[in-house]
Amino acid sequence: MTNLTEAEAAGRVMVALDYPDAAAAESLVRSLEGIPCYLKVGMQLFYAAGPGFVASLKERGYKVFLDLKMHDIPNTVKGGSNSITKLGVDVFNVHAAGGMQMMTAALEGVEAALSGDSSLKRPLVIAVTQLTSTSQAVLNDEIGIGGAVEDAVIRYAKLAKQAGLGGVVASPQEVQSIKAACGSDFRTITPGIRPSGAAVNDQSRIMTPREALEQGTDYMVIGRPITAAADPRAALQSIIKELI
Ligand SMILES: O=c1ccn([C@@H]2O[C@H](COP(=O)(O)O)[C@@H](O)[C@H]2O)c(=O)[nH]1
């Protein structure tokens, strides 16, 4: 048991809307109506449905994580961050592998947007460390980065913290080390969540929702265990129940 209320537990879940178009995503959103979870819009949906879909979620009061994982030269990321901030999203991200200057530029883009429109809310800017699909073997043998995945994650997390970002995307397996290295206020947003018995799919570094919560994660990103379920609302409700 934890001290989380049902609403608080729902607020820790970010449902990944990985759909090919607005109509498909809309149908899932409607099925979850009234549950105060975050909605995550990633590349597939954003490239198909664009800023208009994000704006429609915000108009309906949803908290939105725009997961576009920017990774480009600093000037381009600054511009991208500026445009994203103007969409009014609550959370967005860049790749920590872009380095300190790129992450700082992302924050400059945010500041420029906020200074031009006082009605905008400051988004939480976070950095992707090592994708949760990346295993130890892939990191070492394919990508060619030596050492333990966890060490790479912590290196990226420290760099993101130094750049002034508010948190990182990582596996729940790394949450305790990230918090120890970067402080308890430094947010962890963790995909790689699989309820017991669920298909692992292409994820590698996974944990159940309950285990992730016990590691101290702030938010858990969950896609297919909800969206591919016969009854997505029931699947989300069962995850929330596991968290309270
Ligand atoms: O390291 C990362 C970064 C982002 N993701 C995203 O999270 C969801 C996970 O979806 P599942 O269906 O629960 O696997 C997806 O949108 C990814 O793009 C990630 O998995 N790992």
UniProtKB/TrEMBL annotation:
Pathway named in the protein's UniProt entry: Pyrimidine metabolism; UMP biosynthesis via de novo pathway; UMP from orotate: step 2/2
Binding-site residues for substrate, renumbered to this chain: 18, 40, 67-76, 132, 194, 203, 223-224
Keyword Iron (UniProt): no
Pfam families: OMPdecase
CDD domains with a match to the protein in the record: OMP_decarboxylase_like
First-tier enzyme category under EC: lyase
Reactions catalysed according to its record: orotidine 5'-phosphate + H(+) = UMP + CO2
Domain Orotidine 5'-phosphate decarboxylase: 12-239
Active site per the UniProt annotation: K69
The protein's Enzyme Commission number: 4.1.1.23
Description of how the protein assembles with itself and partners: Homodimer.
UniProt similarity note: Belongs to the OMP decarboxylase family. Type 1 subfamily.
Protein name (database record): Orotidine 5'-phosphate decarboxylase
